[in-house]
Amino acid sequence: MKKVVAMMLVLVLLAATLVACAKPADPTQTQTEQTGDVKPGAGAKKLGIILSGTKDDYGFNLNFVQLGELVEKELGIEVVIKENVPTTSDSEGVMEELIAQGCTILFPSQFGFLEYSHNVALRHPEVAFYSLPITDYAGGNFSIIHGEVQDVWYLNGVLAAMYSTTDKIGFIGSLPIPDVIVAIDAFALGAQSIKPEIDITAVFTGSWADTGLQTTSVNQLIDSGCDVIAPFQDSIKTMMEICRSRGVHCFGCNSDAYELDPQTWLSACITDWSGYIPYLKQAIDGEYEPVNISGGMELNLIKQATFGDTVSDEIVAKLGEVREQLINKEIAVFEGPIYAQDGSVMFEDGYRPTIEEINVIDQLVQGVKGSMN
């Protein structure tokens, strides 16, 4: 009898063990708990970059190619770049492919990859993910390092106003979304700080890289008397070529494309990848910690690109002075009073908005011509 009871106890314990082993993961478990002691990116030999376009767009995607070049130079690891990846769930397969190839650090380049990269991150706690858009996904093996662009766009506006001889400047936006509107407003405020009555016209193409719409917009702005063009587009090559042929000057957007045409080129607002290298090195050294950072020039996350050959020493010196004032918080781009196109108050006199308030600006500032409709 004792043997029967003992056998029954063994069977009960065995069954309980099997049930425990088969128990599904707790859906409330956090990403950090799932990661456990695994250090994402430790000993990484390869870093993967996912692009929605091509490497040679001289804009948004080239920016990440330049990241890859810096990583290979500073960290000595291989960089694998995937181009023309759709911003759909299909991108998860591309990320899985990169991981299978040995990439244990991944950079999904844009907002469209955010949800899908987070899904892959949950499946691969050994891989360190770094994303730029602001999100609540930060934690575990998913880090956010966001560059705030308003200060550099303000500096570009200062440059444009000092450079223009017609006192007419054109801005070619893509979509009327906060990211683009903030850039236009900061650019306009910078220009107005030098020439309060300067004429600034903004147009929206409704597209990130439609060369036909870019061509039409650039020519219309030049025909109206603009001698400086500033784009917020993913690709600038077509606009730069038109500006060169018509004898006006052009900013870039998101990447340093000085080499495209040093005479026509003025500068651009670009990511300062040097500020990202310490975080990548930390991961490679097995000391990864998730970060959720938003900052600008003061954190070496954003900077002005190389100045064009025709930008004078006087302008460069002035830009240096204003840059220091911005970094030291002596001035703030959106410090009130700031008025909208219709004359309504955006920010009261003396008020400095938070980055959260800046990131949702949806009005063009007073003095900018053009409609968002």
UniProtKB/TrEMBL annotation:
GO terms for cellular component: plasma membrane. Coiled coil: none annotated. It comes from the Bacteria. Keywords: Signal. Residues 1-22 form the signal peptide. Residues 45-333 form the ABC transporter substrate-binding protein PnrA-like domain. InterPro entries: ABC-Purine-Binding, PnrA-like. This is BMP family ABC transporter substrate-binding protein. It comes from Vescimonas coprocola.
